[in-house]
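target protein:
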Amino acid sequence: MKPRRPRRLGVWLGGRRIADFEQGRQQAISCRYTEAALDIWPQNSPVLSCSLPLRAGPQNALAFCRGLVPEGHALHTFAVRAGVSVADTFGLLASYGRDVAGALVISEQEPDDRRFGVEPYTEATLAAAVGELNERPLGVHDDSELSLAGCEAKLPLVELGEGRWGRPQYGRPSTHILKIEDGLHVGLVAGESACLELARTAGLTTITSDLTMTGGTPGIRVSRFDRRVGSNGVGRIHQEDVCQALGLDPGEPHGGVKYERNGGPTLRQTAHLLNAYSSDPEAQLDRLVAVVTFTVLIGNADAHGKNLSIMHPTPETVVLAPLYDTVPTTLWPDLPADASMSIGGQTSLPKITVADIVREAQAWPHSAERTRKIVDTTIDVLMAAIDRGVIPQESAVAAAVTSRSAHLDNR
């Protein structure tokens, strides 16, 4: 017998039901804030999302919700397992919404942490899970109530201590993600790991990472920036990607706009979010300049609207999230070399200059003088990190960053 389909899903944040998602016609999803939320926070606060500011009445939440479910093959597999179509985002969240990216818990019933479970992995079962990722994206089982956006091969993990790892069950929040090399681009995870090391040195990420070999398959295990591990367990941290924050549908089946060239987010739109909702916009625009500079230096052409996020430190404010997808794509000739978000009108990463970055920042608007200082500081920090061996000086990443630093540095 087919399970009863809910008509409404609660949206929980920090143990409080702040909103409801309701299924509409033709797969539409509306969001309606609860009276409790309306009583607690000021109108127009980005409690749930910048694209769903706090106010009475229903709002179109389909784009935001689609940003919570996988893309590509993973989306199709999840839909088949849930017995719904790939366009039925509401049905997908009803099955997999209890542990999504960020802090929200989406469930018909009030979340109950006592349901949480973890199945410990052995070396053999973890290798098997990696080998089955094509058939079981995210390692999904009948007891999985989780969803991660994107289309790459990855596996959510729970750290159990003493080098042990487990599979989350029944909505239990994961602490790490294991990303698997695709087999076509040898050294890609090593390149991402090196760039994460540099990003940490520059203060642009809090993520820790380590390279792994699981059943002969290279991978990189990264900590989740949207999770906080403490004495009371794993806490969730509220965040959303820039596509969600702007209310843009990121992928199938409606065409997708995570890339600027397809109508996706721009840096100027990202800056507008920071100007509108940050408690210190100037500092956040400084950070955005550093992120742009870093993206150019490592040659990451995949810094699109789903690979750049904002965090909600309070229900009324936002900040740029730590960098979490730092792949130096231009090191592989068959991967893109054009920036996902144009910089001062320029898209070719090898051709971008300080003048382009300054022109881009002035449109936000941000001071040209501050922008140049941030560019120079970012270059200095990365070059000093390479000089002292934070990453191998003979690596392709070090060579690329050194070359682009010389191109960018106008002092």
